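Q: Given only this backbone (278 positions), what sequence would you predict?
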């Protein structure tokens, strides 16, 4: 893993690249680029380890407002890809249940590292988003995709089930459509993915993709930092508890905003009331 002001490289060995920038609305935004240009940005164990390390590094940034996760440029002649899946050659070399558990746990730990980031993570999807790539996208908070993107869970076609963060899919698209993806191993186009709720926004081109991501980053950066981090934690609670427990968690979250007397909410409310009077 290395930190660089540029990303989306279409040359070189598999890598995870982290870039940082301050945005006009305030705060730090980071971009994590998964780059494996010769192989549709598939993730191997070394790449997954670098992704986990990148998230750990960003988690301690005090001014982090948002993270963008993207696939790098693919090699000439290759189709564009967000993440085209896990490394099938590595999986083919597994020779015991223990080795298999270690391998698949890496994918889970990478997804968990994204979910554990304190700031929202936006998946910037352009091209193939398959298998482990779709699980990683599902672990992000928001997803924006180009119309040429393709989504699928092909694991049963190579003799294994879809596992780990595939468990997030029913919460996004429902159990019936999840079964359709993981049983039939069919790919769906981006328009279908948006209609199902697998992605939150669809754009025509890479240029529009960058514009859409920047728009969302700006909106996030204008919010209260503590409020946004609290909101991310709370939405993850909502995924796993009954409604009444989710409501109770919300009451606690609201009250905790005033542990310091409500400095952040009061500053934002004063600004809102000032604009309303002008």
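A: Predicted residues:
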């Amino acid at each position: 893993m290395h930190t660089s002001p540029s990303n989306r490289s279409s040359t070189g060995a598999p890598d995870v690249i982290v870039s940082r920038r301050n945005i006009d609305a305030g705060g730090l935004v980071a971009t994590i680029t998964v780059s494996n240009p010769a192989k549709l940005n598939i993730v191997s164990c070394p790449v997954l380890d670098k992704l986990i390390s990148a998230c750990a590094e960003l988690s301690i940034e005090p001014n982090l407002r948002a993270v963008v996760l993207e696939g790098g440029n693919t090699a000439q002649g290759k189709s564009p890809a967000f993440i085209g899946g896990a490394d099938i050659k590595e999986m083919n070399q597994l020779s015991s249940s223990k080795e298999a558990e270690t391998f698949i746990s890496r994918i889970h730990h990478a997804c968990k590292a994204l979910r554990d980031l304190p700031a929202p993570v936006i998946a910037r999807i352009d091209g193939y988003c398959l298998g482990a790539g779709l699980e990683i996208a599902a672990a992000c908070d928001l997803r924006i995709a180009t119309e040429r993107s393709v989504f699928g869970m092909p694991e049963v076609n190579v003799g294994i089930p879809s596992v780990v963060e595939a468990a997030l899919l029913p919460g996004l698209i429902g159990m019936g459509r999840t079964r359709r993806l993981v049983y039939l191993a069919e790919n769906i186009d981006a328009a279908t993915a948006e209609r199902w709720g697998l992605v939150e926004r669809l754009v025509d081109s890479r240029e529009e993709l960058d514009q859409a991501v920047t728009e969302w980053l700006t909106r996030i950066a204008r919010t209260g930092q503590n409020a946004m981090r609290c909101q991310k934690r709370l939405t993850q609670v909502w995924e796993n508890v009954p409604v009444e427990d989710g409501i109770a968690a919300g009451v606690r979250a609201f009250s905790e905003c005033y542990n310091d007397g409500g400095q952040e909410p009061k500053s934002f409310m004063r600004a809102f009331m000032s604009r309303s009077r002008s």
